[in-house]
Amino acid sequence: MTSSRIDRASSDDLMSLASDRGSAPMQVGAVLMLDVGRGFEPERLVHAIEQRLPAIPRLRQRLERVPVGFGRPIWVDDAGFRIADHVSIVRCPSPAGPASVLDVAAGLITTRLPRDRPLWRASLVTDVVGGGAALVIVYHHVLADGIGGLAVLAALAGAPAVDPLFPRSRPTRRELALGAARDRLRAVTRLPSALARLAQAALQLGPALRTRPQRSSLNRPTGRRRRFATVTCELDRVRETAHGHHATVNDVVLSAITGALHRLLAERDEPAETIVVSVPFSSRGSTAASRLGNASGVIPLRLPATGDPDERLEAVALITRAAKLSAPGASTAMLGPGFRLLARAGLFRRFIDRQRLIQTFVSNLKGPQDRLAIDGRPVVAVIPLSVAVGNVTVSFSVLSYCGTLTISLAADPDACPDLDRLRQLLERELNDVTRRSVAGVAPDRRRPVG
Question: Which CATH architecture best describes the domain 207-438?
């Protein structure tokens, strides 16, 4: 074994660990739809994945706690790593269409990952209708955020790699103690910037703490089960709509989601003028597969849900532009310590099961626009996966890939039994706002932006 530097979990990573107290685990992932053609050998693809793991160190590392006073948990190489412990081959259940693949994904993402091994797993789903296959990948949020997940995807689609130093030895107690002391000294020198970040966090979270959304069925107790549904749209249509309103693709999606939730609540006889959405903002635009972890924070935004679609979109754009003026990811300076304190006191589960600060989560990632392939098998579509915890009954994950925008809806089927209806409403809202702009109903009154 070769010794290496100490690789610690960051303070942002620790927030993901503290948040993992809900009925569903704090896990995220993606479904990669593959064009495998004839003569597909699943075992060969699994071997190809194994060959690319050296480029993604986290996928062969365990997260280990250290004694009190020795610093944050550390990532250590798993000398006993076996690909068979992480990747399985399963036949797609009947009727073997996209919905069946999503059912497999729902089962995988809601099954807690064992903490004594690297925090990820995957299922290669074969015999999908049309002669395709799907690779469902799930990992604990402490391993990577969405930006890190894109880096993992790029590495899997890259060339085989070699790491001659694997496995590295675990740091000694002396090394841990010295490292922890150095970290404390650095923390003192960074105190002014930490206080400034805390002030930014207060500005970002203040509005949500001062005013609460009206009670609705969007917040009710949830269990472990989840269902997924998807809505897709041509990315160019959404981008053209955004540019015509001095907005972003994310603004268009947020406006469509709040409109769809308003219509769903109206059908439940629960009128709602606004929806409070928790939106992540990353402090980095990209990262490498060798540098994963978390570097983002969330900002609760009270967004309009009614009125003319064009006016609603422009109102959403104004709100998100104002939110972007603060430091990205700053909210973790307040949420991280608060969540860890609640977790140590055994109160975090109670808090998230009863909170009335946010009504849904919406994450959005800009994925690769050139088609990827794993071992020569084209990735024809990517479906993002995440699940909300606590009393949030439905959440949304958005990803653009190869000219297509995909929105995945995740819901507790017992707390939100009308997921299919919500999918229809979201599809209608998205089509309405993009059709109006493309048809020229909404004039281009502002300078287009990228």
Answer: 2-Layer Sandwich (3.30)
